[in-house]
Amino acid sequence: MLFRSFLLGVLAAAMECAATAAVGLARPSIAAIRTQYELLYAWIYYSDHPIECKACLSGQSDMMLPGAAKKYIATAFPTAAARMGVLEKNRTRPLDDPYAVLSAHVHGATVHTIPKYVGAHGFVSADSLCSEISKLQMTTVEYLEDVLLSLFAHDWMALPQGVRDRVNVRLNASDLKRVCT
Fold it and tell me: 53, 103 in Cβ contact below 8 A?
């Protein structure tokens, strides 16, 4: 059950995002969202690989990053791509996959995401930016929920009621059947 550490990390990173956004710290908030993304993909991989999980958590090996975990999913879960296609067709989020945006902010990869020092007060973001962080968090949550649905929707009744309710709003009966079978 070592792999449960990754899910607890997702929860902690979500709380970290909320706390840092509440005080106007945008960059740490975005880093916390990216951490949620990476830890959930790690959980997916390590839940099937306990030896590798133990090595990762003990610092003996690097963590499985999302790109490699996606390749694993493609081979280990042959129905996931078709399910994800249906879910993406019915998404409410503005991005198919938010990882590139999250990474650009974490790494300062574009002219708009490079940190700029304007004094200590510059570390605290305007309310409007913190509102955008909330939208990015919700985008990421829907994406990650779709990833999990693409893997586990066949066990519909085992999914939390809140997840089922959100999916029922997004999908018509035909698409829901395609995702769950």
Answer: no
